[in-house]
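Usage example:
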Amino acid sequence: MTHPHPAPATSRTTDPATLYADLVPHLEPPARAWLDRALEEAAAQPGVHGPLAVWELRLAEAGRRCGHAHADTARVLILHAARADTEALGRVYSQGTAAERRAVLHSLPLLVDGPGALPLVEDALRTNDTRLVAAAVGPYAARHLPAHLWRHAVLKCLFTGVPVAGIADLERRALGDAELARMLGDHAAERTAAGRSVPADLNRVLALTDPTATPPARPADHGPHGTEGTEGKES
Amino acid sequence: MRIFDPHIHMTSRTTDDYRAMHAAGVRAVVEPSFWLGQPRTSPHSFLDYFDSLLGWEPFRAAQYGIAHHCTIALNPKEANDPRCAPVLDELPRYLVKDQVVAVGEIGYDSMTPAEDTALAAQLQLAADHGLPALVHTPHRDKLAGLRRTLDAVRASALPPERVLVDHLNETTVKEAKDSGCWLGFSVYPDTKMDEERMVTVLRTYGPEQVLVNSAADWGHSDPLKTRRVGDLMLARGFTDDDVDRVLWRNPVAFYGLSGRLDLDVAAPDPTHEGNSVLRGGE
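Running the assembly step on the lines above writes:
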């Protein structure tokens, strides 16, 4: 991978072939063999079988097999190979470690068309684990998260120090969002009143809400399911 | 001095403890699942707890530069409650997780038939999952409890060199050592074992296969007891290498039997920015 550990490489790239091609040069031969076998097994035996499906076992052990720096991508590939649907993703999320939950969040733009997996995003946004919060504000949230929850997600990133540069489609969703601007302004006032500094990221987002700002081009990497999102600022 | 606390219940500790532990040299901990003081009444209560040991707690630890692993089990005390025992059926899906480095704490509390059943079942689970086992020895009737524990280990599929018997003291250390198991000592402010006694035990029985822990929890306990033991060992003539062996290499060797120990604490990544645990109202 060209992405630094443990940046959510997979939140930006939703093409599994590219993910795989970027990952394998970084894997030791045993890890690569393990991953290839895991992907074959997942493709051959997706779904629910036995007390623990083989692909779910592979999902759990990806960290120790591939190394933690590569586990996010390996897990996304396994979820894709297993053709995990919203129900399966919900199950492995709820039964997963924080690392597995992060991988499920990264997989959402790849595997889920509609807003059905939003409860997972909302769950992650309720945590104070910044790894989960960062993974929750990827392209899937950009596409489907309703405006109120999306604004609170932006604020939560500011509160917890998750860089807003990691919020997918920030420029497009923030543009002209007067309510977000008000919330940011109030937060800045609260910080100033307390004698505390205003995070640079806050001013950055605030500038993006300016309706006279240049609208960003719609990103091209919106996933394999097209750009059906209509989640504009007032959705 | 690098320190691995092989038994500490961080769920019950504050972030200030993490900071103090790091300052004292603690770079790795194992948090065994145990009871929480208030008895649980259903398996779901366990599952939320296990999820915390695999999610929130490693996140907290990483922010202070400490690698966090855990052991998963139905503890002996709650094995006696038929409302809790069904959690045994949920354990296999937890025992495959990356950060689970042993089955534990298992063992005896009151030495009941229900505890016999849970101990045997979980020793088998350890064997099935390629994991070692952390075995608690009882506080009451300790020597008899140790003997019954060692009998259960001998009757199991798990070889003694994959078992750590914990909370040992002067009356139980010899038989535990003769069994071939690893030897755990919990150093407490008042009870179990103190630093002076610990150093005497080390002088008598040697540092081989000995692990020292704080077992700090919600009771009167001290997460820096590992450091105190290291300091006293040096003051009493042990070498730096002896200290490193007891406080680092032995726990690494024991939990390393799982093949899952990962001691590279991820430096705070770009999303952390060195923040302390934030509450969203910072």
